[in-house]
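$ ./design --mode recover --in tokens.txt
reading tokens...
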């Protein structure tokens, strides 16, 4: 393996491991990184989605006790008691994940077509626009205030699942979108983060499976490079989750989205002018 491929794989895994826990799009930042390194927009999109597998593994290990408790509820799930006390969270995860799949697959196909049709500069600028829109959503949800709801409903699951599907687009934060929608629906911060976390595992597995099936294997990378990137994302993700979740509670990340989005627009514009 060339040294450049090794360094790119390590860097990609580190970026995914750090940014996945923040309500700013890890996929958007990875897509910009891959594009800056000379990959096509289509390949950058596939690689950034594929690396969600690493942080999904890290989250599964870190929150194994929470997952065990949730899985017990899922195993005892009954349709007639859906969204009743004791069965609400499993129902929420199930309905929201199905909705994400129904909305997300067409969005993924659209994103792939657009990424393959546009130049690198336009792709990066598009990521910047989506980062800024994510920041707008988060800023608006901050202004709504905290609610007191506890049990999710069928409508909550459908709305959150649809919102999560848009995270298939580079620049749209999965955690930012789902948490913001839950805040809009009246949940307080801890409840919103918990429900968003529960959704992250099936979403991460689904995104990885979609990319692998679409590409017929690893997306434009060798097995060794993929293993290095995944290992880095697992280790960095696990080691940084405590620190970064604490930062999320104190820093207005809508402002970070605005800043990164503005830089992406500027960088994409420069590439377009230069001829990229």
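writing sequence...
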């Amino acid at each position: 393996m060339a040294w450049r491929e090794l360094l790119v794989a390590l860097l990609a895994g580190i970026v995914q491991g750090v940014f996945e826990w923040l309500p700013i799009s890890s996929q958007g930042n990875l897509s910009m990184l891959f594009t800056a390194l000379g990959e096509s927009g289509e390949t950058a999109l596939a690689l950034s989605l594929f690396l969600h597998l690493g942080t999904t593994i890290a989250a599964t290990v870190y929150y194994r006790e929470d997952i065990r408790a949730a899985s017990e509820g899922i195993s005892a799930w009954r349709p007639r008691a859906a969204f009743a006390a004791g069965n609400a969270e499993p129902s929420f995860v199930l309905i929201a994940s199905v909705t994400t799949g129904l909305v997300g697959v067409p969005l993924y196909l659209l994103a792939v077509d657009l990424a393959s049709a546009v130049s690198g500069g336009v792709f990066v600028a598009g990521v910047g626009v989506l980062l800024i829109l994510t920041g707008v959503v988060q800023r608006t949800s901050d202004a709504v205030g905290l609610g007191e709801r506890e049990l999710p409903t069928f409508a909550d699951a459908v709305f959150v699942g649809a919102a999560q599907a848009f995270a298939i687009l580079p620049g749209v934060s999965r955690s930012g979108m789902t948490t913001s929608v839950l805040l809009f629906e009246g949940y307080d911060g801890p409840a919103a983060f918990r429900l968003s976390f529960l959704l992250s595992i099936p979403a991460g597995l689904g995104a990885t499976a979609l990319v692998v099936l679409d590409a017929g294997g690893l997306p434009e990378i060798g097995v060794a490079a993929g293993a290095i990137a995944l290992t880095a994302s697992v280790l960095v993700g696990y080691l940084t989750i405590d620190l970064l979740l604490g930062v999320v509670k104190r820093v207005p990340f809508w402002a970070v989205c605005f800043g990164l989005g503005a830089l992406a627009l500027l960088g994409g514009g420069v590439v377009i002018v230069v001829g990229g």
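exit 0
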